[in-house]
Write a structure and sequence with these properties.
Bound molecules: NADP nicotinamide-adenine-dinucleotide phosphate
Structural class: alpha/beta
Largest sheet: 7 strands, mixed
Strand content: 15-25%
CATH architecture of the domain at 15-51 and 110-156 and 392-543: 3-Layer(bba) Sandwich
Number of helices: 18
Shape: globular
CATH superfamily of the domain at 15-51 and 110-156 and 392-543: FAD/NAD(P)-binding domain
Number of strands: 19
Helix content: 25-40%
Distance between the termini: 44 Å
């Protein structure tokens, strides 16, 4: 597919665009479409060989969409895409989501403006020309008036630092950068480190053919039935017929889901009523468990315990060996780590070939060439699967490490906190926009829809600047401080910051530990609209350097 991408320039030359986008995933692809529609010249760079971003990389066994599920994890800007695309299941496999994104690229001829297999290794702001210059791994250079970082909230992999891991001679894969060649588990002894969404999706699939699976668990997790089911022709026809209403609901819902906001309070009902509702939702599966149960589970300890205890009972009912079930009991507030949907995860522990190792009581000491050594002894293995997650939300921005005014690297500006305004812009980094970055609802929102809405706001900023001959925009430091305080106040009113998670940065040693996502839901998009309608209070503009000449 890379052959269809933008042709390479002659060596040493420099290309000029209105908009540069880093990342050809769900967000970057939409940005390319949107800015092209505005008549702007756009160039996108991506290290992968084709479109898809996270869906290009995360092709581990069992990878599926969860969250809003199909057909609602999609672009909403045109009815045509909705009407012409047939989803087969409610929780589509990775290959189906990728096929949809490839279709989007084909449909709007996107690849001609994307340079694949090209890492952006440097980005710097030039005060004199009011432009960003990018340098790539292939030695190319390009400038753009605007730089859009669609680098992915979950794309920089987190690799565990365990003694001897580099000496292990068997196959080693990270779920977030799974190879494109087929991987066989047939007859192999496989160790899986990590029991987040990726590990919990992969483990039952691996167990189907592996000789032995060692599940190396640091934190026991709550997981809920995915409730995946085939979508029938009737389901599709119904979704198409009511698409206008569905889309309006998605826009109004705090998480961008096609659901009514929930206001039911757990502690106003009896234990029997609560259990009856949980049971009904457990049987149906999907994120409905959270969307249609109680509004106070993330804020009230008692409400939280009612849900947590229900899930713990379910785990004990499913897992036959009581000692294994004990090890699988989570002890944090439910929902305060990213909720997980599973397809046979707990049932996998009833298989003879699956062994759970609780790393809290039997920690990994080291790897050898042929196995993993925990306190209780060595387990010989042929393959190591790292389902150890990501340096999430901020990690990919820091990997890009743009240099702003005065050549200041973002790594320096973000040493203690991921300062930003509206989750979109950073003081000292004019005309640079982040998608799904810190300070935005990002990972708490339906991500394709969130990307469309953020890109729409950026497009409005560009129009505003073009019509007024403005060359640069950046937020004031004081706006960043106020926004940061709002982000933290919203989070601190919930139970979320009280649990170690990738939401709080606790999964990456040395990372600033605070809850960096904006929890105000769709209020966020009202704030963006209000800022635009008032001509961007909290931001400063500079005249276009060309118009000053
Ligand atoms: P994750 O949720 O961060 O889980 C990583 C797992 O690895 C955790 O169990 C973690 O333990 C463990 N771990 C990390 N470092 C370790 C170490 N040094 N030693 C032992 N264990 C270690 O990552 P993920 O499962 O890849 O999921 C990340 C996010 O991606 C999800 O929350 C979700 O938002 C998204 N995702 C979505 C889907 C989907 O269906 N759409 C699928 C996969 C992922 P601790 O809990 O103790 O840190």
């Amino acid at each position: 597919m890379a052959s269809q991408s933008a042709p390479r320039p002659t060596p040493g030359s420099i290309e000029h665009f209105d908009v540069l986008i880093v990342g050809a995933g769900v967000s970057g692809m939409y940005g390319l479409y949107h800015f092209r529609q505005m008549g702007l010249s756009v160039r996108v760079y991506d290290g992968a060989s084709d479109v898809g971003g996270t869906w290009w990389y995360n092709r581990y066994p069992g990878a599926r969409v969860d969250g809003p599920g199909s057909p609602y994890y999609c672009y909403t800007f045109t009815d045509e895409l909705m009407k012409e695309w047939d989803w087969e299941e409610t929780q589509s496999e990775q290959s189906a989501v990728l096929a949809y994104l490839e279709h989007f690229a084909d449909r709007f001829d996107l690849r001609r403006d994307i340079r694949f297999e090209t890492w952006v290794k440097g980005a710097s702001w030039d005060e004199a020309t009011q432009r960003w210059t990018l340098e790539t791994s292939t030695g190319e250079r390009a400038t753009g008036r605007y730089l859009i970082c669609a680098v992915g909230a979950l794309s920089t992999t987190n690799l565990p630092d365990i003694p001897g891991i580099e000496d292990f001679a068997g196959e080693t894969y990270h779920t977030g950068s799974w190879p494109h060649h087929p991987v066989s588990f047939e007859g192999k002894r496989v160790a899986v480190i990590g029991t987040g969404s990726s590990g919990i999706q992969a483990i039952p699939e691996i167990a189907k053919t592996a000789d032995r699976v060692y599940v190396l668990q640091r934190t026991a997790q709550y997981a809920f039935p995915a409730g995946n089911r085939p979508l029938t022709a009737e389901d599709r026809a119904e979704a198409r017929a009511s698409w206008e209403t569905i889309r309006a609901k998605m826009y109004a819902h705090p998480g961008g889901f096609p659901a009514d906001p929930n206001s039911r309070i757990a502690m106003e009902e009896t234990p029997e009523q609560r259990d009856a509702l949980y049971e009904k939702l457990w049987q149906r599966g999907s994120f409905r468990f959270f969307l249609e149960s109680y509004a106070d589970v993330a804020v009230s300890e008692e409400a939280n315990a009612s849900m947590a205890n229900f899930v713990k009972r379910k785990i004990r009912e499913i897992v036959r060996d009581p000692k294994t079930a004990d090890k699988l009991m989570p002890n944090h507030f439910v929902m305060t780590k990213r909720p997980i949907l599973e397809n046979g995860y707990f049932e996998a522990f009833n298989r003879d070939n699956v062994t759970l190792i609780d790393l809290r009581e039997d920690p990994i000491e080291r790897f050898t060439r042929t196995g993993v050594v925990t306190r209780s002894g060595e387990k010989p293995i042929d393959m190591l699967v790292l389902a150890t997650g990501f340096d999430a939300i901020s990690g990919s921005m820091l990997r890009l490490d743009p240099k702003g005014r005065g050549g200041v690297p973002l790594k320096e500006r973000w040493k203690e906190r991921f300062h930003n305004h509206l989750g979109l812009m950073i003081h000292g980094y004019p005309n640079l926009f982040m998608i799904h970055g810190p300070g935005s609802p990002g990972v708490f929102y339906n991500m394709p829809l969130g990307a469309e809405r953020q890109m729409g706001w950026i497009g409005d900023v560009i129009r505003h600047m073009q019509t007024r001959q403005l060359g640069a925009i950046e937020p004031m430091k004081a706006s960043e401080d106020a926004w940061g305080a709002e982000v933290s106040a919203l989070a601190n009113a919930t139970l979320f910051p009280r649990t170690d998670s990738w939401w709080t940065g606790a999964n990456v040693p040395g990372k600033p530990r605070y809850f960096s996502a904006y929890l105000g839901g769709s209020i966020y998009y009202h704030r963006l609209a209000e800022t635009a309608s008032k001509d961007y209070p909290g931001f400063v503009f500079e005249p276009d350097c060309e118009s000053k000449k």
